[in-house]
Amino acid sequence: ETGVTQTPRHLVMGMTNKKSLKCEQHLGHNAMYWYKQSAKKPLELMFVYNFKEQTENNSVPSRFSPECPNSSHLFLHLHTLQPEDSALYLCASSQDLGQTGYTFGSGTRLTVV
Amino acid sequence: AQSVTQLDSQVPVFEEAPVELRCNYSSSVSVYLFWYVQYPNQGLQLLLKYLSGSTLVKGINGFEAEFNKSQTSFHLRKPSVHISDTAEYFCAVSTPSGTYKYIFGTGTRLKVLA
Q: Cα separation of A77 and A18, whole Å?
C-alpha cells in the first residue's frame, strides 16, 4: 500500500475514445501531480495542483484535461489521444510543493491504438 | 536554474558487491536532494532525502547517500547489493523556497547479477 492509489492499472484506448485516469490519496497531502513516463525519456511533469488549485501546466496538449475536485482526488481526462501518448502515467502527492519528497502511485500503463 | 545529471544510464554489478550510483546537480541556490527507486511496473518510491544537517543520509533497504556541496554531488551507495535491488534509480533536486521547481534525473538502471 503506497498511500496513493491509481486506477485503472492498465488502459487500452482508441484514438477517438474518451477515458479518465483516477488518483486518490488519503495521506493528508496538499499537493498532487501528474507525470508522464515514456521509454528512454526523463520523467515529464504535466500538471501540479496545490490546495486544489492548478499551479502549473507544463505546456501539455489540450487533449489532456486535469481535474482536482478536492485535495484527495485527481483526475486526468483523455480524449482524441495519439499513439505517441502511450506511456506510464504517474500520480504523486506531497505535503507541500515537493520540497520534502513525493509519494507516487503505481501508475496507469496507457496504450493508444 | 537547477539541473540534475545521472551520468550512468546502466550499472551492472554482481550480488554482494558494493555499488555507487552517481548524481551531480547544478543550482545557484541551496537545494534539497532525493533518491527514488522504481521497480518494474511500479511507481517511484522515496529511498532517502537530504534537506539539511548531516551530509551523510541513510535511507531504506540499506542505501545511503552523501551530500558534497563543493563537488555538487549526491551519490547513492550500498555496501552489498542483492538481486532484489535490481531497479531504476532516480536522483531529484528541489529548492526550499521561491518558485517551485522539482527536477528528476534521467535515471540509472541497476542490474544485479547472480
A: 7
pLDDT tens digit sequence for B62-113: 999 999 999 999 999 999 999 999 999 999 998 776 556 788 999 999 999 9
Length of chain B: 114
The answer for A 43-102 residues in CB contact with B (under 8 A) is 43, 45, 48, 55-56, 90, 92, 97-102
Instruction: Select from A55, A90, A102 the Cβ nearest to the Cβ of B46.
Output: A102
pLDDT tens digits, one per residue of A31-59: 999 999 998 788 999 999 988 888 888 88
Q: Please, which pLDDT band fits residue A110 given cuts at 50, 70 and 90? A: very high
What is the C-alpha separation between B43 and B51, in angstroms, rounded? 23
Nearest partner of B49 among B61, B30, B32, B24, judged by Cα = B32
- Strands A10-13 and A108-112 come out as parallel
Nearest to A91, CA basis, from A2, A23, A44: A23
Give the residue on B whose Cα is nearest the Cα of A89: B43
> Where in chain A does DSSP place strands (E)?
4-7, 10-13, 18-25, 31-37, 44-50, 53-57, 64-70, 73-79, 87-94, 103-104, 108-112
